[in-house]
User: What shape does this take?
Amino acid sequence: MNPKQSKKQTIRALFTHIAPAYDKINRLLSLGQDQSWRRRALDYTQVPAGGKLLDVATGTGDVALLAAKCFPSAQIIGVDLTPAMLREAQRKAQMHSAAAQRIHWVQSDGLTLAFPDDTFNAVISVFMLRNVPDVSRALAEQVRVVRPGGHIVCMEMTWPRRFPMTWLFQVYFFGLAPLLGQWIAGDRAAYTYLPRSVKQFPTPATIAGIMEAVGIREVTWELQMLGTVAIFVGVK
Assistant: This one.
């Protein structure tokens, strides 16, 4: 098995195990701010009335469900590699509005999206890029399925670069995340992986460069939560 396939299997197993506790731990680690970040990222998609939005690595469906509220006439598709996460998303959708019932949930690999070229008005991915074995390929797939002029929006955790936030984030993330993982999900290892993956992830400027290299234009990014969350925006 090559390293890319190995990472894919590892990530699928990790998220299968933590799926039931994923939302609760996200809320706690983000101090309740993660939904507001998702809304901010959705604002940048600029999905027109009756348009089509793809949420890649939808996880438990938070972005897709928010999109159903923000764009009630849009066609929304949420894809994820992990069936357990999609089951959580479908369960949550049943408790939401009629618009949420129209979301289509599809198991699909973000590196080989199961859609034709130029299908969507916008593509969004949240907390995905750290977990894929090939960032360039994942972004290239998002470009492929977006219509010309459509937006590609990616949101990721990013390691702060200035003291004292570098020190505070190290203590907070490496100290608290594994404890919450053990307490809530019964999986300390999964939430040891999380801060390590953030610390090893490329800088925002590097990610912007990769976006441009795969054909995304007008790339910008903004930082949230004292420089610990980055929202990237570009146009096909």
